[in-house]
From TrEMBL, chains A, C:
<dbReference type="InterPro" id="IPR004165">
    <property type="entry name" value="CoA_trans_fam_I"/>
</dbReference>
<keyword id="KW-0808">Transferase</keyword>
<dbReference type="Pfam" id="PF01144">
    <property type="entry name" value="CoA_trans"/>
</dbReference>
<dbReference type="InterPro" id="IPR012791">
    <property type="entry name" value="3-oxoacid_CoA-transf_B"/>
</dbReference>
<dbReference type="GO" id="GO:0008410">
    <property type="term" value="F:CoA-transferase activity"/>
</dbReference>
<protein>
    <submittedName>
        <fullName>3-oxoacid CoA-transferase subunit B</fullName>
    </submittedName>
</protein>
<dbReference type="InterPro" id="IPR037171">
    <property type="entry name" value="NagB/RpiA_transferase-like"/>
</dbReference>
<comment type="similarity">
    <text>Belongs to the 3-oxoacid CoA-transferase subunit B family.</text>
</comment>
UniProtKB/TrEMBL annotation, chains B, D:
<dbReference type="InterPro" id="IPR037171">
    <property type="entry name" value="NagB/RpiA_transferase-like"/>
</dbReference>
<dbReference type="InterPro" id="IPR012792">
    <property type="entry name" value="3-oxoacid_CoA-transf_A"/>
</dbReference>
<dbReference type="Pfam" id="PF01144">
    <property type="entry name" value="CoA_trans"/>
</dbReference>
<dbReference type="InterPro" id="IPR004165">
    <property type="entry name" value="CoA_trans_fam_I"/>
</dbReference>
<keyword id="KW-0808">Transferase</keyword>
<dbReference type="GO" id="GO:0008410">
    <property type="term" value="F:CoA-transferase activity"/>
</dbReference>
<protein>
    <submittedName>
        <fullName>3-oxoacid CoA-transferase subunit A</fullName>
    </submittedName>
</protein>
Length: 220, 226, 220, 226
């Protein structure tokens, strides 16, 4: 990111995850995508009961095991070893996507390449001629969960905005995103476009607008 | 701490509105949430659409609810069973609308609602009175009927065991429609014979995971009576 | 039935059930409708492993219990008490009709009011203005099972034929029936209509034709 | 006596024809019937269409089958995983057709095949490249895509326990696609880690009833390796 000389510091990936975790209340059923979203679980205290779901048929994922306690039969959708907490259960893949498509998840948090001010999300393919495309459960999760939050850097490494008027990458879903957590701000997607809820200390709305293609509006 | 248990049938049924669509688990007398169904009478909710395989028998459960005049419409596969006299007299008197649905289509329409599938094609009913007026289409050389998802505002479930996250197991043929209506209800309410501690149910053997369940009431009411 | 003075005796309900049972080989998955079909199970010896299914989610139904061994949680689709044999299992209703609709049953045996020479079956409503219609799983079973056999009296009590050119009662399914077992004969439904496989001793094809509206052909 | 057990992988795979569609259970390395998949090579069957969530990794299982040149087309949701080099090189070389399907649509298409539903509407994929050219329809105020059932000539399943009727249980996340492909295969073949006596599996806990299973081979092959 081409950072202006400024007194603000972007959030680290861990800080982004912690910021998102703050907003997840007890009792929600939540699916976390690969990347920063996966880190969110580490920041939800175990006593705040949030029930994490994985596409491969797990409800009630617990903390990652240490090397001595790995169960080789227990991986999440990112193919990482996980644990099952008391109250967890297994379902098959069709039921698992019934959970997703049927709007039983309170929340899904996904990474993305771009989010448009209309809530469109592009997160599965970076060009029209990808060497070997892969979509996984992203499209199902994006249309199915009751709320879709996106966690991503505010701009690309080259400084190109990721919050755009219209996505340039292939779409994952139309009008699906409710909120975006970036390393600089938290923004709701509203009928009037992106509304800024929260920014890192020291950052102004003008600073943020400069790093954003879509027009931002302040929280009223 | 998540705790979906509520203290009473009244608490369990809180907030059910007039005009709601209520999905009932159970097949005949087995696996019916009789106390919850009868509890609907006390809530005062009226003008209900009830979805159930059978239309009740004697003066218990659904038959009592029908007798109390709270049901406007029944969506049902096999309303006429031994003892379904209350249903039959209301139906004959034109005081109850009936939508007759093949049993498998009934189950699949609720499963579709729970799984986010708004409509599907099925070979069942093609060329019969129950498909009259419905859209048909040839797929794979065979004619099929288009059927729509059947979601409920409320689903009433009977379970054998439940824990505080709402994970459920059933007993024998008491399973029947219960896991299906549990998926399809926007508000899924369970009466359970037994309470399990969280973690007591083997995760491999949970039939309805708690994600489909909103409220549970513990009612150790004993065996079904045919 | 207006029986001609003849040297033949129609099968009893029990004999019809036994006749059907003879034709069910080990290893088949079978659903039995209400009435005579239900009796079929009693005539399949327990050591010939046939796996009986009930719409309410049971696979592997065993012999009926005596009064002292009734499990009030274990009924079949006809709401009769049943048992579960070793190897049996329970599934929910949507899966149970997946079994049916998805052509996983080798056989379904249903009762009927009428069967047409085209294989149409009418078995759920006796008139267009029934006092309270009920269909249950009949339509699903008729279209779903790999084979549909019908068990019924050859004529009504008044002597009206039940094997007809076209059904007069409301249809359950079109072109679904493969074979009919009556109290007088066994008939396959073929592209050329009903073909008689078997008759009770002493009955001639002419006798049978007289009791049948559709045209019969002999087994070649 | 029904006994679906066969003595060997060769017996289990007997009769699979060129051009068959093969459905694979498994998600990543967990719950994949690796021995059956590799056994396909020895059968000589070619021109296969393989349906699987992933496209294999390293040189085992599906990756080996791909390398042996037996697969014409892959229907898959997430072919590109760590170690999927064989898939990637075949795909880049244009030697493998790929139909990319959202994971939930893939599961639902197979479940539909198993349940006798020839086609269904789903919101997944609307407005994306993966819905291009597909029929759409508004149902309940929302646009949906029409998707078709995906049956298999053969399904290859990995189970934790099986009995001689073919009743199956799985282990933890090894369940995944296995019960779904078991329903959708016209010939469903299972490799199981453990053999249970008939009646040993609690009837309440069977996940795949034997009605979906044709052949079982006992292969105590140990834990999956990521």
């Amino acid at each position: 990111m081409s950072r202006p000389t400024a007194s603000w510091t972007p959030l680290s990936r861990t800080e982004m995850a912690a910021r998102i975790a703050r907003d997840i209340p007890e009792g929600w059923y939540v699916n976390l995508g690969i990347g920063v979203p996966t880190l969110v679980a580490d920041h939800v205290p175990i006593e705040r009961e949030v029930i994490f779901h994985a596409e491969n048929g797990i409800l009630g994922i617990g903390p990652a095991p240490d090397a001595a306690h790995v169960d080789p039969w227990l991986i999440n959708a990112g193919k990482q070893y996980v644990t099952l907490r008391a109250g967890g259960s297994y379902i098959h893949h069709a039921d698992s996507f019934g959970v997703i498509r049927g709007a039983h998840l309170d929340l899904c948090v996904l990474g993305a390449y771009e989010v448009a001010e209309t809530g469109d999300i592009a997160n599965w393919a970076t060009s029209e001629h990808d060497t070997a495309p892969a979509v996984g459960g992203a499209m199902d999760l994006a249309v199915g969960a009751r709320r879709l939050w996106v966690a991503m850097e505010h701009t690309t490494k080259e400084g190109r905005p990721r919050l755009v008027r219209a996505c340039s990458y292939p779409l994952t879903a139309i009008g699906a995103v409710a909120r975006v957590y970036t390393n600089l701000a938290v923004l709701d997607v509203t009928p009037g476009g992106f509304r800024v809820l929260d920014m890192v200390p020291g950052l102004t709305l003008d600073d943020l607008q400069e790093l954003t293609e879509a027009t931002l509006s302040p929280a009223s | 701490m998540i705790d979906k248990f509520v203290a009473s049938v009244v608490d369990a049924l809180h907030g059910i509105e007039d005009g709601s669509t209520i999905l009932l688990g159970g097949f005949g007398a087995v696996g019916q949430a009789t106390h919850l169904i009868e509890g609907l009478i006390e809530t005062g909710a009226k003008d209900l659409t009830v979805v159930a395989n059978n239309a009740g028998y004697g003066r218990v459960g659904l038959a009592r609810l029908l007798e109390a005049g709270r049901v406007r419409k029944l969506i049902c596969s096999f309303p006429r069973i031994a003892g379904s006299t209350i249903f039959e007299s209301l139906y004959r008197a034109g005081r109850l609308e009936l939508e007759l649905v093949p049993q498998g289509t009934l189950a699949e329409r609720m499963r579709a609602a729970g799984a986010g599938v708004p409509a599907f094609f099925t070979p069942t009913g093609v060329g019969t009175r129950l498909a009259e007026g419905k859209e048909t289409r040839e797929v794979g050389g065979r004619i099929h009927v288009l059927e729509y998802a059947l979601p409920g505002d409320v689903a009433l479930v009977e379970a054998w065991q439940a824990d505080r996250w709402g994970n459920l197991r059933y007993r024998a043929a008491g399973r029947n429609f219960n896991p299906v209506v549990a998926m399809a209800g926007r508000l899924t309410i369970v009466q359970t014979q037994h309470v399990a501690k969280l973690g007591e149910l083997d995760p491999e053997t949970v039939v309805t995971p708690g994600i489909f369940v909103d409220r549970v009431v513990h009612l150790p009411h004993g065996d079904p009576v045919l």
